[in-house]
């Protein structure tokens, strides 16, 4: 009985195929964020625009605009803050956004995740 089990285990190891690794498609994007709502002093407006939460949130949006299945692989460059003067009652204050945020997006390459029957 032990011998049969051993031969069965050896046969399974020899004839079992390794799991194929998933392949990805990568795409680099460069985009700008929207200005933060409201006007503030320049230092405060830059701090609001360059918050890590805002960069991550907009990075996710940038990748999602590519279509279904795209998501953020990494943020390569956080870009630079650009400010504009406010007019009217908020004269002397600034409204800032971030330009040239570089994001690497990825998605599964079609047919590599074992979703097609008979293909490995």
UniProtKB/TrEMBL annotation:
Recorded superkingdom: Bacteria
Designated name of the protein: Integral membrane protein
Lineage summary: Bacteria, Pseudomonadati, Pseudomonadota, Gammaproteobacteria, Methylococcales
Signal peptide positions (record): 1-21
Keywords: Signal
């Amino acid at each position: 009985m032990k011998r049969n089990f051993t031969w069965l285990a050896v046969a399974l190891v020899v004839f079992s195929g390794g799991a194929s690794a998933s392949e990805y498609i990568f795409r680099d994007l460069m985009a700008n964020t929207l200005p933060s709502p409201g006007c503030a002093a320049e230092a405060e407006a830059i701090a609001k625009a360059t918050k890590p939460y805002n960069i991550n949130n907009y990075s996710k949006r940038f990748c999602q605009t590519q279509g279904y299945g795209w998501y953020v692989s990494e943020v390569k460059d956080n870009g630079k803050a650009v400010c504009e003067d406010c007019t009217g009652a908020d004269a002397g204050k600034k409204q800032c956004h971030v330009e040239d945020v570089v994001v690497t997006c990825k998605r599964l390459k079609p047919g590599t995740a074992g979703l097609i029957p008979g293909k490995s």
